[in-house]
Amino acid sequence: MAGHSKWANIKHRKAAQDAKRAKIFTKHIREITVAARIGGPDPETNARLRLALDRAFAVNLPKDRADAAIKKGAGLEETDHYEEIRYEGYGPGGTAIMVDCMTDNRNRTVSEVRHAFTKHGGKLGTDNSVAYLFQECGVLLFAPETDSEQVLEVALEAGADDLVENEDGSTEVLTAPASYHTVREALLAAGLEPAAADITQRPDLTVPVAGDDAEKTAKLIDRLEDLDDVQSVYTNAELPEEAFAAE
Question: Rg of the chain's alpha carbons, rounded to an integer?
Answer without folding.
Answer: 18
